[in-house]
Specification:
Layout lengths: L2 H8 L13 H10 L4 E2 L6 H4 L14 E4 L3 H14 L3 E4 L15 E4 L6 E3 L4 E5 L4 H10 L2 E2 L10 H7 L6 H4 L6 E7 L5 E5 L4 H7 L9 E8 L1 E2 L3 E8 L4 H11 L7 E8 L2 E8 L3 H15 L5 E7 L1 H7 L16 E8 L6 H8 L5 E7 L21 E8 L6 H14 L21 H6 L3 H11 L24
Length: about 475
C-alpha cells in the first residue's frame, strides 16, 4: 500500500487534499533537475500536454507531465514517482486504447522529444522511443531501408514494438519486435540499462512482445532493417451480403499463399473489403487474387491494383475502411481483439456476429509466414501460430451511442466468436474489460513475464490496471 492510498483510507487527509501531495517544494526541486519542461495543473500548456490520442480520457488529470528531453529527465521522473508513491506512465504515440498513458494523479513521462532516427551504414537504425511511424518510414525510405511495422503514421514506435508490432510486411519479414537488437530502458530503480540478447537477456526477451509500460520506460531502440523494395498492392470491395462468403474463402486462400503476400479484411454490416500487398510482380499478384475471387463466387464491385514504393504503400493503408471515422489527430472510439488459433468450424456464424451491429467495424489481419517461424517462447509475443488477428472497433462519440454502448458492442463481438479463438487477445489493443486479460494477452509466456516484472520492478512502480507488476506495497519517501 502506498502513502497516498494509506492516507485516503485512514482518513488522515481528505481526498481533495491529495492534490497537494507531494509538497510544492518537492515539485520545484524536480523542475530544476529537468532539462525539459514540467507541466502541472494550472500551468500554461498543461491541458495540451496531458492529452493522448483518445478524447475519451480528457477528464483525467495527471499530477504532472514531464516533457523529457534527455535520459536523465526520465530517471528523475521515475525516481520522484517511486519516492512519493505516485503512478507513473510513459507516453510515446498516446494510442493506448484504455488511456493508460494519461494517468490520473500520477506522472506522465512524455517521450515525444526522443524522436531521433539514425540510420547506420550497416542498415541498423537507432530510433528514439518518441518517434512516430510516419517519420520512421520516411527516414528509412530515404536511406533505402524498411522496418516492418504498422501503417498508422501517428502511432508511436515504442508501443508498437513492445507489444509485437504487426503490419503489412510481417508475413515476409516478421514482427517489428523480431527486428529489435537492443533497447535502452530506465527501470524502476531509475537505472539506465542497455539490454540485448547478451546483456540482461531476460529483460530483452520480455521487451519483444511483453507489452508497453510493464518493465520500465524505454527511451531508444536499435533495430535491424531490410532493404526497401517496391510493393504491389490490391484492393477489393465486394457487394454487401458477401461477408460470410468472403470470410470463408479468405480463410482457405490466405494460408496457402506465399509469404510475400499479406492481406487484411474489413468487415461490417455495410462493407466487405480485402486489401493487401505482394512483394513481387503485379501480374503474379493478380493471378493469386483471381483465385480468391473465384472462391468467393461473386465478383468484386470494385477492384484496384498498383505498384508503390514502401512509403506510399504504408500511407495507402493508413485509413482502412472499417476504422470508425477518418484518420485524425485525435479520435473517440473503443476497441478489442481476438486471435484466430485454428480453422473456423462455421465462418458464416462468425460473419453474423461481426455484422450484427451496423456501427461495429472489424479489421482482420493475416498471420503465418515469418511470424510463425519464430518459436512461441523465443520472444514474449505468444500468438505465433495464429491464423489471423481480429480487431473490433466502435465509435464512442455521442452520435455513436457513447462509450458505454461502444464497449457493449465490441464485447458482444469479442465474446461471441466461438471456441476457435479461445482466451486470446493482442496486447497492443488493450481492452479494460477483457475477461482473463493476462492469459489472453500473454498466453504460455505469462509466468516468465511476471517473473521478469518482479525482478525489475519488485515494488510495483510501473503497476497499472492491466500491468504485470504487482501493486505497489512499500515506498520510501524522501527528498528529490
Amino acid at each position: 500500500m502506498d502513502r497516498r492510498t494509506f492516507l485516503r483510507i485512514s482518513g488522515a487527509v481528505p481526498v481533495a487534499g491529495l492534490a497537494a501531495w507531494p509538497p510544492a517544494d518537492d515539485w520545484a526541486r524536480l523542475r530544476k533537475r529537468l532539462a525539459g519542461p514540467l507541466f502541472r495543473p494550472g500551468d500554461p500548456g498543461f491541458p495540451e500536454a496531458k492529452q493522448g490520442f483518445f478524447t475519451l480520457y480528457d477528464d483525467r488529470t495527471p499530477a504532472a507531465v514531464v516533457g523529457a528531453a534527455r535520459v536523465e529527465d526520465v530517471q528523475a521522473a521515475v525516481a520522484f514517482a517511486a519516492r512519493h508513491g505516485l503512478p507513473v506512465a510513459a507516453r510515446s504515440g498516446g494510442h493506448s486504447y484504455p488511456g493508460y498513458s494519461t494517468v490520473d494523479g500520477g506522472i506522465v513521462v512524455d517521450l515525444s522529444r526522443f524522436s531521433g532516427i539514425d540510420v547506420r551504414p550497416d542498415g541498423r537504425a537507432v530510433i528514439g522511443a518518441g518517434a512516430r511511424l510516419e517519420p520512421v518510414a520516411a527516414t528509412l525510405a530515404a536511406a533505402g531501408r524498411v522496418l516492418p511495422a504498422g501503417s498508422c503514421g501517428t502511432v508511436g514506435i515504442a508501443g508498437l514494438a513492445l507489444g509485437g508490432g504487426v503490419g503489412v510486411l510481417d508475413r515476409e519479414h516478421g514482427l517489428t519486435c523480431d527486428h529489435l537488437e537492443a533497447a535502452r530502458i530506465v527501470t524502476a530503480d531509475a537505472r539506465v540499462r542497455t539490454v540485448s540478447a547478451v546483456a540482461e537477456p531476460d529483460l530483452f526477451w520480455a521487451l519483444r512482445g511483453g507489452g508497453g509500460g510493464n518493465f520500465g520506460i524505454v527511451t531508444a531502440f536499435t533495430f535491424r532493417t531490410v532493404p526497401v523494395a517496391d510493393v504491389a498492392t490490391f484492393k477489393l470491395a465486394f457487394p454487401v451480403g458477401t461477408q460470410a462468403a468472403l470470410l470463408a474463402a479468405w480463410l482457405e486462400w490466405q494460408p496457402s499463399m506465399p509469404d510475400e503476400l499479406w492481406s487484411g479484411m474489413g468487415l461490417g454490416a455495410g462493407h466487405a473489403t480485402l486489401d493487401g500487398t505482394f512483394l513481387g510482380p503485379e501480374a503474379r499478384m493478380n493471378e493469386l487474387v483471381d483465385d480468391l475471387v473465384r472462391r468467393v463466387g461473386t465478383p468484386p464491385a470494385e477492384r484496384g491494383a498498383r505498384v508503390l514504393d514502401h512509403l506510399g504503400a504504408m500511407r495507402a493503408f493508413d485509413d482502412r475502411d472499417s476504422r470508425p471515422g477518418p484518420a485524425a489527430d485525435r479520435a473517440a472510439y473503443v476497441g478489442t481483439s481476438r486471435m484466430l488459433m485454428r480453422p473456423l468450424a462455421d465462418p458464416g456464424a462468425v460473419a453474423g456476429v461481426l455484422t450484427r451491429d451496423p456501427r461495429l467495424g472489424t479489421i482482420i489481419d493475416a498471420g503465418g509466414g515469418a511470424i510463425a517461424r519464430v518459436g512461441v517462447r523465443e520472444t514474449a509475443f505468444p500468438h505465433r501460430t495464429a491464423l489471423a488477428g481480429f480487431q473490433f472497433l466502435h465509435g464512442a462519440e455521442a452520435a455513436d451511442g457513447g462509450e458505454a454502448e461502444a464497449r457493449r458492442s465490441v464485447a458482444a463481438a469479442r465474446d461471441g466468436l466461438g471456441p476457435e479463438f479461445g482466451t486470446t487477445g493482442y496486447v497492443n489493443y488493450l481492452d479494460p474489460e477483457m475477461p482473463d486479460w493476462a492469459q489472453a494477452y500473454y498466453g504460455v509466456n505469462l509466468p516468465k513475464l511476471r517473473a521478469v516484472a518482479r525482478k525489475y520492478d519488485p515494488r510495483g512502480v510501473f503497476a497499472f490496471p492491466q500491468g504485470l507488476s504487482a501493486p505497489r506495497s512499500t515506498v520510501h519517501i524522501g527528498d528529490t
